[in-house]
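As the work plan foresaw, the team has encoded backbone shapes as discrete tokens. One protein thus recorded appears below exactly as we store it.

:::
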Amino acid sequence: MQGVEEQKTLSLTVAYNGAPFCGFARQPGQLTVQGELEHALGLLFRREVATVCAGRTDAGVHARGQVVSFDVSEEELRDRTPRSLLRSLGALTHDAVAVRAVEERPRGFSARFDAVSREYRYFICVDETPPVFMRDFSWHIPKPLDVAAMEQAAAHLIGEHDFKSFCLAASAKDKPTCRNVNEVSFARERVMGENMLVVKVVGNAFLHSMVRTTVGTLAMVGRGQREPDWVCDVLAARDRSAAGENAPAQGLVFWQVNYGE
């Protein structure tokens, strides 16, 4: 039996195209990012390896800087370096997954519980014609968006609030729904010649579908379908039906995790 003193904690920084996957979290009989990672780790260490992620992503949502942690023994790491693990994981995981870094962490480090904040970015294509290169990574809204109104609306979301209206109803049942949002900002970027409005959302943690509902709600304001102060009513309602639609999954990227380092 392995002694506690022999345990080491490693983390992976992982990028993935979410299109082929039924989300991050393992599901029996389904292709998932966690399932792929744990299968690869199982082949390497010849045992089941349980992983913890910084934030679960839904089906079709992408990641640039997902972080996953797991424990191994000193014996299992013998003759293995982070670089060799990186190469091995690259060979064993799905083509839509890229392990960008392998790092040793303080023993007991948790990708989830040690995270200080998480950052998501949502890409809206604002060109009149549909995107070609960013088709699978953005939401096309050809109607001009009033970004100033969206900024006014987003200001109501900053700080600690009950975001029950922004959460998938079934996931919110009997669970705490207060979260702290640090930033909701907007930037115009040109990607592969296509014009994007990038919505950056940073918070301590997020509820199921919270970022996509936030973007869908702000898009209604940007289209002139609601006034900016309507977002206050949405928060107060604590009812998912009060908010806007879920923005499509393919426009969302789990950008990075901050551990206060």
